[in-house]
Amino acid sequence: MVVNSDSAIIAEDGIHPARGRRRQPPPMDGASPYLILFNTVIGAVDLGAADDRERAITAINATGANFDDHRTICHVILGVASNAAREHLEKLMSISYRSEFVDGWFEQGEARAKRDDILRVLKFRSLRPGPGQRERIESCNDLATLDAWFERSFTATAVDQIFEDEEDD
pTM of the predicted model, to two decimals? Predict the structure, then answer.
């Protein structure tokens, strides 16, 4: 990580002023991702440097933030970047954002759609899940489990039959 001459680095062991044109700050390996992002926002991380851009992207992904918070963090980091750094960051974000964050978002969407499909098939077949059964279906996020329930929903004569294999375990 590179510190600009008018910046300071805030690390877990304190604030370190930048002296001279550029200096290496204390290592931030193992630092909280939010500490790294804070240092990015205050200008202590040089987003013009490839290593620092990568560190900022890694920190964004390490926050574990939900979709809205993740998007907000990305916008904040892009907002403090120079035009040249922003172009590089957007490329990195599209790769890491897609590979880690968007894939998870798509899985959630697939699970939601599969849950809706199960309930729709049961309704079409005049099978009404009780409140506990409905909650079980609506709270499941495991795609393999939902796939099995979906397949069984076509042949079940009672709602509890879609859960049968799990109850035997």
Answer: 0.42
